[in-house]
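Hi, here's the filled form for the chain we discussed.

Project: internal
Contact: R.S.
Residues: 311
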Amino acid sequence: MAQVTSIEVPVAAVEIGSARSAHGASPFKKALRRLSGMPVGVVSGIVLLTIVLVAVLAPVVAPHDPYDSELINRLKPPVWEAGGTWEYVLGTDQVGRDTLSRLIYGAQISLMAGFFAMIISLVIGVPLGILAGYCGRLTDTLISTVINVQLTFPFVLLALTVVAVLGPSFSNVILVLGIASWTVYARVIRSEVQKLRELDFVLASRAMGVSTIRILAFHIFPNTINTVIVLSTVQIARFIIAEAFLSFLGLGVQSPTPSWGSMLGDSRQFMYDRWWLPTLPGLAIFITTLAINLFGDTIRDWLDPYSRNVV
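And the returned structure, exactly as it came back:
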């Protein structure tokens, strides 16, 4: 009997230890395990990281100066077309500037416009959304009225007004995008806070006499961070498209500054005989915004508390 016992106890110990190791994995390992089950998000994240690195390292990566124009080299085809050379891999534009270099530097403009416009709209919209969702009916009605008035104002008309007063520039584009889009944050966060304020931990804080500012700062806002992160990724993609739209119309970044939108606008006359000139910046906008949207969906699923128990 003693021998049987000495054999069975270690086996049981091994089984219990393996069960504990399976269920007691560190949060970091669980997060990596969940992320490994999202291949689309991983690929989109790699693509997005590559675009960011190319934009940051543009002075090193770009083969030519994006502002250097030589009329003798104007409208050279890309390397895969007849007459193309490896010196200008993607050809040149109508004034002889290297298309690849302008695409690389244009990534800086698009990413910076999307990021800084997102920061402006976040700083304005999140606090107002929290106040509208948590405070009394008067505050909610006032902020909601401002939101509704803002939504009835056409975006293009707002852009035209700002450009007419301040003039077209990169900083004014960021300002227009940020001010025109804070309502998205405010509406989403307001709805989120209206649910949070009725939960037990908030009601208990009120009963204990915790100040409103402390409740908003340490109980309400931290529980909206996941929503803010996911919404911000969607907004960055939206701002990149909006910046390209304004630059295409001549209301945003002005030539010769390389911008994907202005490249589209300058090359539209060559749409039929030199299709690559408008196609390449359009493809850059498509790939970047698609990668951001897919990565945002992955972050949403990754931060979902209901999926954190999936190992």
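Let me know if anything looks off before we file it.
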